[in-house]
Amino acid sequence: MESEGNTARLTVKVKTGYAIGQFVDSIGFNIYYFFFLFFLTDFVGIPPAIAGTVSLIAILWDAIFDPVAGYLSDNLKSQYGRRRPLMIAAVIPYSIALFLIFNNVSFSSQGAFIYYLAMAIVFWSCYKFYVIPYFALGVELTDDFNERTTLRAWASVGIYISVLLTSALPPYLLAVFQQQGISGANGWRLIATLFSLMLLLCAFICWHFTRGKEKFSQNEAQAQPQQSLLKSFVEIFKLKPTKFLAGSVFLWAIVSTMGTGSLIYLMSYTLGYSADRQSLFFIINSVVCILWLPLIIWVSKYVDKKNIYAVALAIGTLGLLAFAFIGFPSFAFLILFCIVFCLGNSTYWTIYYSMMYDVCEVDDYVNQRRREGAITALMSFSQKLGAAIATWMIGFMLSVSGYNGALDVQTAAANKMILYLNTLFPGLFGIFAVLVILFYPITKKRFDALIVALNARKKQQQHTHDAFKKLL
User: Fold this and answer.
1) 106: helix, coil or strand?
2) Which of 69, 174, 253, 312 makes an SS bond possible with 132, Cβ 3.0 to 4.6 Å?
3) pTM value?
């Protein structure tokens, strides 16, 4: 099936609505990666290796489930479109599951393992049925090369406001609750309730603001013949751009997850910061990430996405490796580290989605199918696989180093391991993430030529692929 291009500029209302929808993804995603492992080790009392295994299994389940969600999203038959009905149906159980994974239960060690594993699997399953259609919706809003980057920049603002809320608020609120005599367990229940309500509100705003903006009509969606899930994903993975983008996404997901999941340990134990100082850092971290976005968008008007992505990730990687040896002798050094690393991480979360969107037109040309959901799912699979490995590595390495969440002061070996989990180890993976993306073939010039050929084919006019043959 072939489709009309959608190159019109997006209105502020649509961009705002789409960006607010990003909160639904990012609030659950970030509070999980910032605090779930820490919650299990320091509040529930689960040993770090076991806590890491809980996250590994749950996130691997999420990754394996990605293709199913993408396939269902591409083939949904509804008068409201293929994407938005799944999004709105998933958000209620997703918000409930967010509350349940931060609910401290009085079970035996084995019972706690089963409970948190089951709740984490439910959480990621519901999350998946929101986020895959959500990202696929972004593909359908526009097929303009630069407008897609702009749309993702708006959504990235939603990411980093969510990062600010989910990283800075919990330590601060826990300290306030403690002063009022509220236990840590009940404090986390209140925090989870707050964020669950935020999810619901933002989902319904996104639903309303993007109404009627899906690219394909119901008749067009029904005209596309269904294909088996396995064959669909094999075809997509064979595309040249898919291999290199998915590889880099996987590798930097390890970097990003280690950098976020280990931070709370670094500040709580290695650096000994109070809750107020931790919250201040997380606020600065989020503001720095947002401040990088205008530069990323401005540069993207003149430089191809791949080059921006590679250079920014390289700078972030060098920062990680440098601070593995410099350490953090003062709070100012931590802020400097934040500025350098956030350039790479902000670019990753802004540009890789836009690059992913561009793969959809390559698939359309090569296989004559619109599979935004499947392509989104494949990239999400790569990202979640990296995240799962990273969370398991955090738990395993903490356990090997002798970390004990019941202690107020950790051993020198545990503190050194925490430092390396924030710097050296992610830096090594960052090197490979940069090297892989250098082979990604989509440029603006080639993409524009591809769009011309797609439109010509739709009109049954002669066309050639000479100008973009390196994409094929």
Assistant:
1) coil
2) 69
3) 0.81
d(Cα 215, Cα 129) in Å, to the nearest integer?
19
Mean pLDDT of the chain: 88
Give 199's DSSP letter.
Answer: H
pLDDT at 3: 38
- How is residue 237 written in tokens? 């993975």
**pLDDT (tens digit, 9 = 90+) per residue, 421-430?**
999 999 999 9
Angle at 97 between CA 94 and CA 99, to 5 degrees: 115
Phi-psi region of 126 (alpha: psi -120 to 50; beta: other; left: phi over 0): alpha
Selection from 45, 51, 54, 52 nearest residue 108 by Cα: 45
Q: Enumerate long-range contacts of 186-191, CB under 8 Å, 24 or more apart.
A: 188/39, 188/43, 188/102, 188/103, 188/104, 189/99, 189/102, 189/103, 189/104, 191/102
Q: What is the pLDDT of residues 296-347, one digit of tens each?
A: 988 988 899 999 999 999 999 999 999 999 999 999 999 999 999 999 999 9
CB 35 within 8 A of CB 264: yes
In the 3-class helix/strand/coil scheme, how is 215-272 assigned residue by residue?
A: CCCHHHHHHCCCCCHHHHHHHHHHCHHHHHHHHHHHHHHHHHHHHHHCHHHHHHHHCC
| Residue written as token pair 């950790």 | 410
Q: Look at residue 7 in the predicted model and tell me its pLDDT.
A: 52
The pair of three-digit structure tokens given for residue 465, joined into one six-digit string = 């692929």
Identify which of 66, 65, 83 has the alpha carbon closest to the alpha carbon of residue 74.
83
Tokens of 448: 């524009």
Locate 8 and state its tokens.
Answer: 């019109």
Q: According to the model, what pLDDT value does residue 2 have?
A: 36
The candidate with the shortest Cα–Cα distance to 59, out of 394, 314, 326, is: 394
**pLDDT confidence of residue 218:** 46
Q: Are 261 and 37 within 8 A, CB to CB? A: yes
Q: Tokens representing 95?
A: 């918000």
Instruction: Give the span between the Cα atoms of 10 and 149, in whole angstroms.
Output: 12
Residue 151 near residue 10 (C-beta atoms within 8 A): yes
Contact 326, 333 (CB under 8 A): yes
Q: Return d(Cα 50, Cα 57) in angstroms, integer.
A: 11
What are the tokens at 222?
């029904």
215 — pLDDT class (breaks 50, 70, 90): low
The residue that leads in pLDDT, 323 or 259, is 323
Tell me the average pLDDT across 112-141: 90
